[in-house]
Structures are given as structure tokens and as C-alpha cells.
């Protein structure tokens, strides 16, 4: 157990003050729910692209990336191929279909194609997914912060949840995307500080560290001996993870909300592609830091505690090797990575609840006030979920597994909605419920042991099961529903969303 050096505490408190200040600044620019949920649809695409990456890059990624490299080397890089394929499909198919309409949530599109029941089901599945994932996202950084600061784990969980809730309630999506950009910058500087410390401390610098890692097989990118269910196998990374990435980037409200906040289809496409590119660069950076730490502890007299898990090596290095002030920067980076995912979760949860479930009209002032209260309520729920789920599994793979339970049925609904001849609403509704139920029964070990262990293919199983169930139910539930004759008009207050913006 440690306590923060005064220099580290100063850096951390300064960071917290800037974040809260951004929330206050964004609050002054709001007059209605469109400002709160979508930043007035005026956000610049580079900022949105960075925010997309910051949302996906959680503290789980910051701590788990170096731990992944220490345990398995660079095999996680293969997932960037699956991510790239998914983003290409998203910018070609999903973004024009969603951003070309006056939507606030992704699930309004499903009501247009099916009916309100399908929209509500998809939104509820999304909200359950995000709340459960919040526990995974907050636990890892809270544990690291607890180790580095000396505060208890429940205290650090509540601190992370409270801070993220405060500036999200205050500033809405605009505060979220600006703080996401700040947080990503803090993470990048923190990772750079780790590499610089290894370079200056180790004889031979980073070259010696990487040579030590390479000598023990940590630099291989492909391993054909990996089981196909693992995300570290080439098929699992490209196809299995690619399907999960398609669900996250194309149908998840956290991503779609950012496309809808851009000025046009073209800018939403650029934001999505930028998010992938920056995400690939940051993933490489975390893995490189992991290799550097692996080589550092192999090449020096410094040793790691025998029972220290790989995910805890970075916090251990921060607490024992970094100079005062620099360590505070890394503590801020861990906090930043945690909040960049939690703030986005809260914003998207509040948007989905207000627009999809409540859907009540009101004055701008009253609607804005209600949106803030909903965000606050979700902040409390997410923090409680983090306390309840803390410690139930390893970081990277647990986050992927939880998302897979829900992402498959939601993805299937969107794919079927995009078809030229969509199935009937009743068949789609029953198919999604059936697909989700089968997925949970098969892979979520409700009876103590899972019937199947599909690993990275959970999302694919959920999607395929949902579509097959829908096809089988189509003949008994009802006829196909006709597609609308014309899409909704362009978004009010923006330039015309026609082919010119494509």
C-alpha cells in the first residue's frame, strides 16, 4: 500500500480541475436536449474521431494492453485487421443509413424499419450491455488507483464514478468528447513517460529491452497454434472479433451517437476512419510498453512479486520506478482512461433512456433538466454495478465476453433492417429474443458451467442464431413489412444530406 507524493497529488488534482472545468464550459453552450445529447450536431469530425477511440480505449485497455504483451507478445495486433474490416463496412453501409436521417439514437432506425417494440428491445439490450460492461471498465483502474494511492478499492470505484458522472451531467456529449480528447492526450504522454524511463534506466535502452523480449518469443504477431476460439488466433481476430467490432462500431449507441453529432455523412465517415487509425496506433503503443516492461524486468536486478498478475505490472512499475510528478501523470492517465469509457457510457445510456424509452415531449428547459437527472441516475447505477462486478475475471477478455452476449442479436436486427426485403416486425422481435436467450444459455454459464465455450465467436453465434430464428418464425408470425417509401428528411439545421455528402 502506497500514498501519493505531493507532486503526484498536485498533477492529479490539476487534471481533475481541468476536466470539471470543461464540463462547466460545455454546460454554458446548452439550451435543449439536442445540445446535451448530440452537441448541437456541430462537433468537428477530428474531435469526434478521437472521441470514438477514447470511448473504446478504456483503462481496461491501458492496463490490459501491457499485460497482454507481457503474457502473449504482439498477438493482439491481429485484432486491428478485424477492426479495419468492420470500419470499412460501417462507413460504406451503416453511416449513410443512420446519419442520413434525423435520428438521435441508433434504435430509432429499427422502429422505422420494423416497429416500436423492436426498437425498445434493442435499446434495452444495449443498456444492459453497457451497465454490465461498466463494472469491468471501472474495476481495473480502480484496483490500480487503490494500489497507487493507498485508498480502498470501494473508495476509488466511487471516486471514478462520481467524477465521470459530474462532468457528464454538467456538459453532456460536448463535454464528453472534449474530455475524451484531453484524456487520450494524457494517456499518450503517460505511455511515453514509461518508455522514456525504461530507455534511461536500462543499460542499452529500449533496444536491450526489446531484444530481451524477442529472445523469449514475445515479438511474434501470428501464432498458428492458438485455438480458433481465441482472439489471438488469426481467424478469431479477423472474423470473430471483426463481427464484434462491426456490432460495436455500427450499432452501438456510444459510436452511433458520435456519427449523429457530426455535420454530415462525409464527416461522420472521416471520424469513423480516424477513430480506427488512432485506435490502432494506441494499441501498438500499449503493446510496445508491455514489451519494454517485459525486457526491463528480464534485464535488470529489479524483480516482480511472484503473485503479481500481468495486468498489474504497469501500476507496479509506476509506483516503484517513476519519478514524483511523472508517476502522478500515469495515475491521471489511468483515471483518464477509466473516465473516457464511463462518461461515454453514461451519455449514451441517458440518450437511449430518454429518447427510446421515455420519448416524452416537453419544453427545452424541462427536457434538458430531465436529461441531466437521467444521466445522474445512470451514473449511480453504473457505479453500483462496478462495485458488484468488481474482480469477476481478467480485464481484456472479460470485457469482450460481456459485450458478446448482447451485441449479436442487436447486430442481426440492424443487418435485417438494411436488407432490401426486411422480415416482419413480429418475426424480428421473436427472433431477437430467441437469439439472445439461446446465446445466454449456451455461453453465459447460468447453470455453473457453459454448454459451449465459443470465446471470441459469441457475437457471431448470437447474430446467426437471431437471423435463423427470424427466418423460421417469419412464416408463422406474420408477413414481411414493407420498407418505407422514402427515408426521413435531412437533419434540421445542417446542410442537405444527399449524395453530395456521401
Task: Label this structure with key terms.
single chain, 502 residues, mainly alpha, Sodium/glucose cotransporter, globular, disordered C terminus
Low-confidence stretches: 485-502
Helix content, binned percent: over 70%
Number of domains: 1
Order of helices and strands: HHHHHHHHHHHHHHHHHH
Nearest-angstrom radius of gyration? 22 Å
Overview of the molecule:
The chain has 502 residues and is mostly helical. It has one domain: Sodium/glucose cotransporter, CATH 1.20.1730.10. The chain is 73% helix and 0% strand. The protein is built from 18 helices and no strands. It has helices at 6-27, 33-38, 45-56, 59-72, 79-99, 108-113, 116-149, 153-201, 205-215, 234-251, 253-261, 265-299, 313-321, 326-358, 364-389, 395-418, 425-443, 458-477. Helix 3 (45-56) crosses helix 8 and helix 8 packs across helix 15.
Summed up:
This protein is mainly alpha-helical. It has a single domain (6-392), classed as Sodium/glucose cotransporter (Up-down Bundle), CATH 1.20.1730. It is built from 18 helices and no strands.
